[in-house]
């Protein structure tokens, strides 16, 4: 009986080791820049604000894409279709993008992690617009 329990447990461990894990989904920025030279990224968007050695890789912190965006006021609609009471005032959004680039010793971007970003309602994020060329809908 004990032999069967150990055999079943061993078989379960072997089968558990055979499962595959789906690769992490890339964001649009990583899809655009992974595998590209970091020099091209920094030439196009500006130098990093900090860097840290991590084994054979370097982690670069970058911030940029500064812009102010005006968001108009929104209003409720009355039953007759005319404009009703104001539901939110007009405002200015201060946009910027912060990313962390993992760069190999041969200066190739291995991964891009979005650190600070702002999502467009129903569209791409600000970092995707700035760094990956995505357009807001």
UniProtKB/TrEMBL annotation:
This is Uncharacterized protein. Residues 1-22 form the signal peptide. It comes from the Bacteria. Keywords: Signal.
